[in-house]
TrEMBL record:
Pfam families: ETF, ETF_alpha. It comes from Shewanella pneumatophori. Keywords: Electron transport, FAD, Flavoprotein, Transport. This is FAD-binding protein. FAD binds at S228, R229, G260, I261, S262, G263, Q264, I265, Q266, H267, N281, D299, I300. The keyword Oxidoreductase does not apply. The keyword Disulfide bond does not apply. InterPro entries: DHS-like_NAD/FAD-binding_dom, ETF_a/b_N, ETF_a/FixB, ETF_asu_C, ETF_asu_C_CS, FixB, Rossmann-like_a/b/a_fold. One of its GO terms (biological process) is carnitine metabolic process.
């Protein structure tokens, strides 16, 4: 497999950086990571496989992450060879990708699920709400991709790995936003993409109160709780970070238990990476049963208490 001479990686979420670096190592001869934070994170990036680190300094509470795009673009622009930039598929990651696209006159593809660098940069991503896979060829000198979670496995940390570090001065954008205050977001932070067991609830849950029962079941089996799009975006009963689907979280758990979820393709594209899928739905013709390894036809508000009683026994 041919490799590009250099891959640039950046993630605004520290937990996503290991898989971004692993992707870079798989696709490039050299992996250059942009780091914002404590200097100890430079060494941590080396242990994960980065060969070069461009250190952007300590986190500044008055700067927003998107403003670093000007600095990142300047560093990349000075590199003479063709290269690929990989970013996490977060809101900030996509915002930075779009800014870099303009600043570097580069092609951008979001939510990529497969990359091929043989004879150019080709990126596959879902289209038509998950009904098809589109493949794009990025013809610009710099290719920019936001990479879906779970596409690459993080490399085991190795303390013997070393690299080169470059301190990069922050370049103030022409127009910037000053952060006056930061407040903790209400609700728990969760990364469903890393969960080993996940329970997903859909409209069949009936009411917000019944989520407590689902939470109890999840606690008994050591699972994280996720949901279908209507629960997060229409009913707003759960945080959007828990929404599983084509424009939400892509799962790769050992077990996925779908409760009251019909199984439309927009949801299932986020769950098909599961090793084992179990489903409970009162409609025997629900599409979810076409994907499930095991299924129960029944009302989840009767099945959930029965499962809880069995597990407690």
């Amino acid at each position: 497999m041919s490799k590009l001479s250099n891959i640039w990686v950046f993630s605004d979420i520290a937990s996503r950086l290991p898989e971004m670096i692993a992707a870079g190592a798989a696709l490039g001869e050299k992996v250059s990571a942009f780091i914002i934070g404590a200097e100890s994170e430079i060494t941590a990036a080396y242990t994960l496989g980065a060969t070069h680190v461009y250190y952007l300094g300590e986190k500044d509470s008055q700067k927003i992450t998107e403003d670093y795009s000007h600095t990142i673009a300047q560093v990349i622009a000075e590199y003479s060879e063709s290269s690929l930039v990989l970013l996490a598929p977060t809101k900030r990651g996509k915002a930075i990708a779009s800014k870099l696209g303009v600043q570097l006159q580069a092609g951008v593809v979001n939510d990529v699920t497969e990359i091929n660098v043989e004879n150019g940069v080709y990126a596959k991503h879902m289209a038509y709400g998950g009904l098809a896979i589109a493949e794009e060829k990025i013809n610009s000198k710099v290719a920019i991709i936001t990479l879906s979670s779970g596409v690459y496995e993080a490399l085991p940390a190795d303390s013997s790995r070393t690299g080169e570090a470059v301190n990069v001065a922050f370049i103030e954008p022409a127009t910037s936003i000053t952060c006056i205050e930061r407040r903790a977001k209400q609700g728990e932070s969760v990364d469903l993409g890393k969960a080993k067991r996940v329970i997903g609830v859909g409209s069949g849950i009936g009411s917000q109160e019944n989520l407590q029962v689902a939470n109890e079941l999840a606690a008994l089996i050591g699972a994280e709780l996720g949901c279908s799009r209507p629960i997060a975006e229409t009913e707003k009963w759960m945080e959007r970070e828990r929404y599983i689907g084509v424009s939400g979280v892509m799962l790769k758990p050992e077990i996925y238990l779908a409760l009251g979820i019909s199984g439309q393709i927009q949801h299932m594209v986020g769950a098909l990476g599961s090793q084992t899928i179990l489903a409970v739905n009162k409609d025997k013709n629900a599409p979810i049963f076409q994907y499930a390894d095991y299924g129960i036809v029944g009302d989840i508000n009767k099945v959930m208490p029965a499962l809880i009683s069995a597990l407690k026994a």
